[in-house]
Amino acid sequence: MTYNSTLLRLLDERGYIHQVTDAEGLDALAAKQIVPAYVGFDATAPSLHVGNLVSIMLLRRLQQAGHKPVVLMGGGTTRIGDPTGKDEVRKMLTEETIEANIASIRTAFERFLTFGDGPTDAVMVNNHDWLGKLGYIEMLQMVGTHFTVNRMLSFDSVKLRLEREQPMTFLEFNYMILQGYDFRHLCQAQGVRLQMGGSDQWGNIVNGVELTRRMDATEVFGLTTPLITKADGSKMGKSVSGAVWLNEEQLPAYDYWQFWRNCDDRDVGRFLRLFTDLPLDEISRLEALEGGEINDAKVVLANEATKLCRGEEAARASEATARETFAAGGLGEDLPTIEIGSDGIRLGAACTALGFTASNGEAKRKIAEGAVKLDDDVMNDPGLLITVAAGESRKLSLGKKKHGVLKGV
């Protein structure tokens, strides 16, 4: 359909829209007033990862279109765990850990959003502030009457777990009720009219829309993005070495930059639309490049995505490191580095310590394949003891794209 509001036109042009509960109604609302909208994030780690980035960019686009982003941190729901897409019960976290994770996660949001007290400034809220105050009987009386077990059993998050004969605790079974109540509470307290999220959250979002309508006769809306996978079908949040974290403490800027630089040729245009602020006409030009020139577009993607998440200086330094490492054959300053004492380190252990491999077993396999080089010479013995003189450095490489520094101390 053709949208009248700046918000839905922007989201549509850049490929964010998968499902909307009432597209015409939301379009009309966004065309006439500021729409406060939220996305929920659980605080299970000190950092979100690239798999969460499309939802963060949704909030950024919302603010760019003149509306108000509400970042909902699940201080309460993290204590339960979203069963969606999970085969196992989530590990319980302490209150102190959850609070520390929320504080750490906020630092990433501050790069993507403008926070403050203005009508379109972003705010961050914690659902433990209201869920933690609800009595169990009160919750059952007020919210439980609007959910049927028949309907709850029909949701994929429940069906898949039961079909696989994986246990689902009663605690997890309540997650969808609490998420629905979040929407209703935020509508009352913050004037929120829209919940956004990934396509796997559609059922939970619809629950919140229906609960708010039943309890308060208020019309609210839901919008989901398509499932974001890479061209090879793998999950967006993962790389060969594990999760691609947004925070510097969990992943160095150079590795973050390299994740984008190493993307599949087929993903360049889509990722530029979703994860950068480049104008659409410039993106069209870049994605039309062919042959070796597509690598220039990948560098632009890496620079723009890194600039948003880590800052302009981190993007420049990462590009310079890559140029020096690959073009000049040197050792760039931002390459992952480990310090080596007088006892040295075994080759397989060095691969794992630098994050090239997830285990020493994987390192052995890569070495056996001839994929590991020390100072550009192929190595074939995982037990090789590498020594580095104090003040000197040696380069360790896995394939053509992963490089690290062994620094003698």
TrEMBL record:
The record's Gene Ontology cellular component field reads: cytosol
- The top EC class is ligase
Q: Which InterPro entries match?
A: aa-tRNA-synth_Ic, Rossmann-like_a/b/a_fold, S4_RNA-bd_sf, Tyr-tRNA-ligase, Tyr-tRNA-ligase_bac-type, Tyr-tRNA-ligase_bac_1
The EC number on file is: 6.1.1.1
Q: Which superkingdom is the protein from?
A: Bacteria
**Where does it localize?**
Cytoplasm
Chain residues that bind L-tyrosine: Y38, Y175, Q179
Biological process annotations from GO: tyrosyl-tRNA aminoacylation
**So what family is this one in?**
Belongs to the class-I aminoacyl-tRNA synthetase family. TyrS type 1 subfamily.
Q: What is the protein name for this chain?
A: Tyrosine--tRNA ligase
Provide the organism lineage as a comma list.
Answer: Bacteria, Pseudomonadati, Pseudomonadota, Alphaproteobacteria, Sphingomonadales
Q: Which gene encodes it?
A: tyrS
